[in-house]
Write a structure and sequence with these properties.
The complex is a heterodimer of chains A (about 130) and B (about 575).
Chain A: E1 6-10, H1 14-26, E2 30-34, H2 37-46, E3 51-55, H3 63-73, E4 79-83, H4 88-96, E5 101-104, H5 109-119
Parallel strand pairs in A: 1-2, 1-3, 3-4, 4-5
Chain B: H1 4-77, H2 80-84, H3 86-99, E1 104-110, E2 116-120, H4 134-141, E3 144-146, E4 159-167, E5 170-178, H5 180-188, E6 197-202, H6 219-232, H7 240-243, E7 255-260, E8 266-274, E9 279-286, H8 287-290, H9 292-379, H10 382-385, H11 390-418, E10 426-428, H12 430-447, E11 450-456, E12 463-465, H13 467-484, E13 490-499, E14 502-509, H14 516-519, H15 539-549, E15 553-558, E16 564-571
Parallel strand pairs in B: 11-13
Antiparallel strand pairs in B: 1-2, 1-5, 3-4, 4-5, 6-9, 7-8, 8-9, 10-12, 13-14, 14-16, 15-16
Helix pairs in contact in B: 1-9, 9-11, 12-13, 13-15
The chains are: A alpha/beta (about 130), B alpha+beta (about 575).
Amino acid sequence: MSRSLRVLLVDDEFGFASVLKKRLERRKHAVCVALSGAEALQALRRQDFDVALLDLKMSDMDGLEILDVFRKMVPEMPVIMLSGHGSETAAREGLDKGAFDFLLKPCDLETLLSKMFAATGGAEAQT
Amino acid sequence: MFDRHYYKSLTRSMILTVFLVSLAPLALISVITSYQFHTAYKDRVHAHLRELVMKHKRNIDGFLAEKLTVIRVLADLIPEDRFRNEIALQGILKSLRDRHHEAFVDMGLVNAAGLQVAYAGPFRLERADYAEAAWFREAMRSELYISDVFLGLRGAPHFIVAVKVRARGEEWILRATVDFVAFNELVESVSVGETGLAYIVNAQGEFQTRPRREPAVGGPELKAILARRGQSGPATGFSPESAGGRGQASQSMVDLDMVRDQAGRECLLLNAPLKDGDWTLIYQQEVADAYQSLFHARNLSLFVILAGGVGILLMAFVVSNRMVSRIVDADRERDMMNEQVIEAGKLVSVGELAAGIAHEINNPLAIIMEEAGWVQDLLDDEYLKKSESYGEMARALTQIRDQGDRCRGITHKLLSFARKIDPTVKPVQINDIVRDMAALSEQRARFANVHIIADLEPDLPVVPASPSELQQVLVNLINNAIDAMEQKGGELKLRTRSEPGFVTVSIADSGMGIPKANLARIFDPFYTTKPVGKGTGLGLSICFGIVKKMGGTISVESAPDQGATFHVRLPRAEGKA
């Protein structure tokens, strides 16, 4: 059995966020979707998360700005950055700001899960 | 792009300018120097000839005066009756001939009636009658007399030296004949160069010596010269005293004329009065002979100017061609740079466009892939597995995921390609880059019917390099290899190997190969064998620069129809060699 993680998924693409939420929940993870930076900050105030999945391009705030805020509010929460844009500069900047890793969309769920487990303290067997 | 007419016209005007600017001072100096030299040299030659003629005139006048004086002294010292005794006369003649190198031929005493009363000499002229002879009448009119050359009774050219003697209330003429041959030799003894010639004419233009060659002037022309001479100094009668007036003789007594002989050759003609104007000494010499050294100098300077002109022309030609060739190269380089800047601009635009498209596609593609994953999750439910359509749904889903993966591969490559070249050096696994670049070129290779074979050594050590730059090198070499096989297809072998201290990548094609002549220049900037507009000639030189910067080497081996192999050797990361 794998560990159940509390996941904050920040992505303004509703179609992507909703289906990823369903798939993660099917694997027994608790997922909170935030469709904007503001929603993400509200969610963080309400509860704690084990890991955050953060899209680089958001409609209201830049992903890197949100990352800055996350690092200040909950520095212990690992952040995995997701993006459909292949900007190496942005990815490196994200990693420099303290993101755990960077994944290019679309990505395998298996790859994503392994990164999430790695970020939250060691790899775990996948169901 | 390159206007040949423009460069040809530029070359011509440069040659002309260099030629004229270099030649003008040379020509000007040559003309001025030549003119000065000509004038000075001619003046010198004229002065020399005048001096020569003047000295010769003195010699001849001296000769005549001496002969006249000798006869006069004899007439003064010896009584008249001694001359009438032929035996005594012959003794006097013998003594004269001995003392004067046989200059005297004969002697005679003539009475006032013209009858020769005594004679000593080789001819039979005893009792000869000179009453009608011109020389006798002239001799009777003056104390001393020298005749013109004439044939006389003996029928041979000669002239007479005569002195009037007074004795026993009568006038006698003591006369002696001067040897014509000896006099002729004296006159002709002066000669300069090959064509110098001296002779004597009387006031009527009759020759008093026998020139060994045809004189340059004769007839009216000679008379005109003599007439001019006659006006400048009329004859006053000859005497030993006047002949001895050396102090008065100067070069101004010598006239110089330029005449043409019968053959049309230009001659210098100098004349001076003899015998106080009765005779004229003429000296002639061909101009070509007189100015021989001048003409030599002129020919030499002409040759030097001509050779200099040819040298300047050659230099102008070589220098102008070399300069224009450099201008052509510089213009071509500038145009290439412009083209390159435009190309680079286009590439940036294409890169940005590709990145935009990839991003726009990636987001919906991510949703498609996640939805497919969700359906796959649902299909894993036991009750759905029992459905009749389960197999077909699973197959369709697999197809959706496979094609989605394919699309993802394409967009990821596009994004990787569009990324800006990053020169940051970091440890690079060359095999990964070779694989990526092979994948990127696969589509193009398939169209060109080229089969890519990768022979990569596992566990290759990393090299310190900029991944983007290394990608650029490999893409360039792979594209060139595909270009070489575009027409017939073939095999592209990518090989990586580890060597002590180095990692080597070899890119080998089976194309037409590179001609030996091109191998040496293949890494030169702007060198291309591709058609105009296809290649900038910068690809390989950029590769060369990048590899060199990384501390590596790039080399090529090729033979016609045997393909070409490029070897890139890069140093391993330190401590891992």
